[in-house]
Amino acid sequence: MEPRHILKFGNTSIHYSLTYRERATLAIHVHPDLRVSVEAPLGSDPAEIEKRLQKRARWIVRQQNNFRKYSLDFPPRQYISGETHRYLGQQYRLKVVMNDNQPDAVVLDREQLQVNVRKSKERARKLVEGWYRERAHEVFQERLALWYPHFERFGFPQPELAVRQMRSRWGSCSPLGKITLNLKLIMVPKQLIDYVIVHELCHRVEHNHSKGFYQLLGRIMPDWGERKEKLEKYDFG
Ligand SMILES: [Zn+2]
Predict the structure, then answer these.
(1) pTM metric for this prediction
(2) Which residue segment(s) compose the domain that 125 sits in?
(3) Residue 6, Cα to own-chain centre: how many angstroms?
(4) Which residue, 23, 47, 70, sits at the end of a domain?
(5) What is the per-residue pLDDT across 66-120, written as a single tens digit (0 to 9) for each?
(6) 168 CA distance to ligand 1 centroid (A)?
(7) I need a surface site. Which of 166, 203, 207, 220 has the fewest CB within 10 A?
(8) 75 occurs within a structural domain
(9) Packed helices 190-203 and 224-232: angle between N→C axes, nearest 10 degrees
(10) Which residue did the predictor score with more confidence, 193 or 207?
């Protein structure tokens, strides 16, 4: 195992792994999952490494914040009580109740997302993700049914819908007309989900991002640009 190190920057503790390699310079990597790994030349002086990292600390934190905001991965969560989780643009506090006598369940009320779980934290994660998946299927289907009538005149049937965790896209439309949506969309407001659905429906008519594509999109959803920007800047924190 790589040793764990901690770099202090104001009130922030940056955890990082350090490996020594045959290389000329120090390299700092900030990964999309927020991990920080440092590679130092063999025989580097630890105090010197620390000093170099201290100088780059602001940059590291900024990179992490960018990944936190713009990554399409699920936001990192520990699945412990008190954490906030998003659903359709609202924030809910997670409450994990460990109880061997009750069936596993996820219950959403006005303020909190409660998970009844018999065993571990890992199980809480599975339950919440399964719940998100179920809700996503239902909500996305409902939004698709709402927007499809705008496209009926083009003569294609209401597309089949799939939900997946995707790293780099919010949605896609296959040549056969199946629409796949990113599971993470269940965390944002419905008007932003609608933008992705309408965008993909337009691809049933215009396959590329041609002029005709944007004309169609603008006719059906005049404020699509605003929605797109909101989605791109959406803070999942
Ligand atoms: Zn597109």
Answers:
(1) 0.70
(2) 84-132
(3) 26
(4) 70
(5) 776 666 777 778 888 999 999 999 999 999 998 888 888 999 998 899 999 987 7
(6) 13
(7) 207
(8) no
(9) 120
(10) 193
